[in-house]
Amino acid sequence: MRARLPRVRGETTCLAMNGHSHLILYVADQARSRAFYSAVLGSPPRLDVPGMTEFELPGGAVLGLMPDCAIERLLGPVLPKPSTARGVPRAELCLLVDDPAAFHARALAVGAAELSPLSRRSWGHAAAYSLDPDAHVLVFAVEAAARKD
Questions:
Q1: pLDDT per position as a tens digit, 111-138
Q2: Complete DSSP assignment for 61-104
Q3: pLDDT reading at 34 higher than 90
Q4: What's the mean pLDDT in 61-81?
Q5: What is the enclosing helix (H) or strand (E) of 56?
Q6: DSSP type of residue 58
Q7: How far apart are CA 136 and CA 149, in angstroms?
């Protein structure tokens, strides 16, 4: 994929984006979040070291789990600490899957809190919403036309 970025004097250049996109959630307890996402996604992490756990997602994206304390060290005193927003939804992870009901049920079985059961949505998906242990919104969806009833 190439992105066109403006140059200083109004000219443009193409820059290549290489590799996979990484989505990183800040978590209170890395081990708890690793266990939760391993169970929900049905796969082990591809990387699990102190300070970062990563899971491969459909389409080549990577889900990262970073402890609050690690990102707070990186951010320093300039920005508010993410841990002060514990319990406040800070991100939404929406995964398009073949069977959102099964993924949603798996998430609920390992500790997610249900926000909304699987329903057809006005934007063309059937989606189920829950909160992970760190109050990130977790959505499992399928295009409504592809949903198995």
A1: 999 999 999 999 999 999 999 999 999 9
A2: -EEEEEEHHHHHHHHTTSS--GGGGTTS---EEEEE-S-HHHHH
A3: yes
A4: 89
A5: strand 52-56
A6: G
A7: 28
Which structure tokens are listed for 116? 């909304």
Which CA distances in Å does 62 have to 20, 67, 71? 7, 16, 18
Token pair of 41 as six digits: 């996604």
The pTM of this model reads 0.82
User: Residue 100 CB: number of other CB atoms within 10 A?
Assistant: 21
pLDDT(6) > 60: no
Residue 1 lies in a domain: no
Domain count within the chain: 1
Judge whether 75 lies within some domain: yes
135 by Cβ neighbours in 10 Å (0-12 / 13-18 / 19+) ranks as middle
Residue 117 lies in a domain: yes
Between the CA atoms of 142, 143, 148 and 149, what dihedral angle is there, to the nearest 10 degrees? 100
